[in-house]
Each structure stands twice: as C-alpha cells, then as structure tokens.
C-alpha cells in the first residue's frame, strides 16, 4: 500500500444520465445535496456502445457548468476514432479536464466492436488526439474482470492502460478490502504505481445488488448475502445494515492509506451522504496531477 499513500486523497460521486424530465429534476436535487460536501468531481456513465451518448453529454455539461468538475465516462466499443475525437473536442471546448476511459460493453445485437477494441487503445488515442488535456481515469478490478482469461492477464491488461497514458484508476466495487490490498500489492511488484481509488457501492436493495454483482463479477461475501436475505422485504433493516457494513469497510480502507473513495450513487444522495458523515470526512483540498 505504500504506493497509494503518497497521493492526495480525492472523493467523487458517480451518476447515470437520466432518461426523463422527472429524472433530471431528481438528479438536480441529488447533485445539490452531494455538492454540499465539496467533492473533487462528479462522473457520468456512458451506456453500452454509446447508447446514452447524447444524454451523457447533456448531463455532463449541465453538471460541470454548476461549479463542480465533472468527468464523462467514454467507452470505445462500437465507436469510431472520429466519433471519439468529436466528443473529446466537445469536452475540451467546454472546459472538461477529466475523462473516465473504458472499453465498455457491446450492446445486444451489435456485431462489431468498433475501431478501438480495448481500453488501452482508447487511452492511447486520447493521448494522441488531445495530448495532456485530460486527466485519464481507467477501470481497475480487484476481483478481476469477469471476462479476463485469468488473473495474470487481467493485471497485464491494467498495466497496458497505464503504459498508454492513464493517470489514475477507479475500481469496480467490492466488499472484501483484502482483494483491493492484494491487487495493489501485485501492481507494486509490477512497478505500476498510479492512484487506484476504491469504488464504493452503498447497499440499499438486495435484489438489485445481486443482479449488478453477478453481471460485473463483484463477490458478495456469504455472511453479507445471508444477512441481507434474512431481512427479506425489510428495506429499513437492509439500508441500516448496509450502511454499517460499507462504513466499516471504508474506514478500513482509509486507515490503510487509500487515495480516496468513489461512490456509485445510482442517482441517490442519502446512502452515500450517510456513509460520508459516518466517516467524518471533512472538506479536502482539490486534487492536482
């Protein structure tokens, strides 16, 4: 963990682009609530194959102009160099200085992966096209990507993204901090030492959590799964238990020296805010790379 202790901590919140006017109004309320704790940035997701492209752009620009730095997710699967360059130029023109660069998922029914097949190719293209305009975030998988052939290949894939020009990383969420510590230990042995910020998923709904976790390969420890099952439809108990579990995990991560936390909000404010307040996180200096 020594490599991670050298970096200033930064804290961020992730949103998805709303589909309806009602969703936009709700996100504005959530944004205002979370802006009150002065995060370093917000991020906005990008649907499979660019399926939310226009809504992502609209959401990013709207949030960014309200005073909190906002980082668009940008995936390359199903896209072209021209379409990626168009987005990069648009974001640069609007003062965006951070990109979350991802391979992304191929939408159902789409046969071709596009001109840029992997995240390291996307990172390399961003650097070729835009130089050092953007701080490039990439994804990290402490429990390894579900499509990786094996753990060693996944570590090498991550290293390729760093070699291509990534500045920092945000992990897939996890519930076992030892998986993160082991992942960092392996990276350090490979001399890969960029900031790797843990992604944090508040627990608010058991069935949704299981569905998300099965899709992305995040392991839910048996003791957590069994306790959540025992609560059945008691949403208050699920939220209270989840808040306690995630707060304890975040505290362990912070005590170990992680370079910040990134909350997957699912466009809800209170679960993340409650954890934030439990941890006693005070206003932080803005991160600068």
Describe the structure.
With 289 residues, the chain is α/β, with parallel strands linked by helices. The protein is built from eleven helices and nine strands. The chain has helices at 2-5, 21-35, 53-64, 81-93, 119-130, 151-164, 177-189, 206-216, 222-231, 235-256, 270-279; strands spanning 10-15, 41-44, 70-75, 98-102, 135-140, 168-171, 196-197, 199-200, 260-264. The chain has a nine-stranded parallel beta sheet with strand order 7-6-5-4-3-2-1-9-8. Helix 4 (81-93) packs across helix 5 (119-130). The radius of gyration is 18 Å and the shape is globular.
What distance separates the N and C termini?
A: 19 Å
The helix content is 40-55%
Radius of gyration: 18 Å
| N-to-C order of helices and strands | HEHEHEHEHEHEHEEHHHEH
Q: Tell me the major beta sheet.
A: 9 strands, parallel
Number of strands: 9
What's the overall average pLDDT, rounded? 92
For the biggest β-sheet, the strand order reads 7-6-5-4-3-2-1-9-8
Query: Based on helices, strands and strand pairing, what is the structural class?
Result: alpha/beta
Per DSSP, what share of the residues sits in E-state strands of 2 or more residues? 5-15%
Low-confidence stretches: 284-289
- Large-scale geometry: globular
Structure annotation, total helices:
11
Task: Give the arrangement of secondary structure elements.
Layout: H1 2-5, E1 10-15, H2 21-35, E2 41-44, H3 53-64, E3 70-75, H4 81-93, E4 98-102, H5 119-130, E5 135-140, H6 151-164, E6 168-171, H7 177-189, E7 196-197, E8 199-200, H8 206-216, H9 222-231, H10 235-256, E9 260-264, H11 270-279
Parallel strand pairs: 1-2, 1-9, 2-3, 3-4, 4-5, 5-6, 6-7, 8-9
């Amino acid at each position: 963990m020594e490599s991670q202790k050298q970096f200033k901590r930064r804290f961020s919140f992730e949103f998805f682009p709303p589909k309806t006017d009602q969703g936009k109004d709700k996100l504005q309320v959530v944004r205002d609530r979370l802006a009150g704790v002065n995060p370093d940035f917000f991020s906005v997701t990008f649907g499979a194959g660019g399926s939310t492209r226009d809504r992502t752009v609209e959401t990013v620009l709207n949030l960014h102009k309200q005073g909190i730095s906002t980082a668009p997710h940008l995936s390359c699967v199903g896209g072209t160099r021209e379409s990626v360059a168009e987005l990069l130029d648009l974001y640069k023109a609007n003062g965006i200085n951070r990109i979350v660069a991802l391979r992304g998922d191929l939408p159902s029914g789409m046969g071709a992966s596009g001109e840029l097949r992997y995240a390291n190719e996307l990172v390399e293209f961003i650097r070729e096209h835009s130089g050092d305009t953007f701080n490039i975030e990439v994804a990290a998988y402490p429990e390894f990507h579900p499509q990786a052939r094996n753990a060693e290949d996944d570590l090498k894939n991550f290293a390729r993204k760093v070699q291509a020009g990534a500045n920092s990383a945000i992990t897939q969420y996890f519930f076992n901090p030892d998986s993160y510590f082991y992942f960092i230990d392996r990276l350090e042995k490979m001399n890969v030492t960029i900031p790797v910020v843990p992604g944090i998923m508040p627990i608010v709904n058991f069935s949704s959590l299981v569905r998300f976790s099965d899709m992305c390969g995040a392991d839910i420890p048996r003791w957590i799964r069994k306790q959540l099952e025992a609560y059945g439809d008691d949403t208050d108990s699920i939220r209270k238990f989840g808040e306690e579990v995630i707060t304890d995990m975040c505290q362990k991560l912070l005590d170990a020296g992680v370079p910040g936390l990134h909350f997957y909000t699912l466009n809800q404010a209170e679960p993340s805010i409650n954890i934030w307040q439990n941890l006693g996180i005070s206003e932080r200096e803005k991160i600068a790379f």
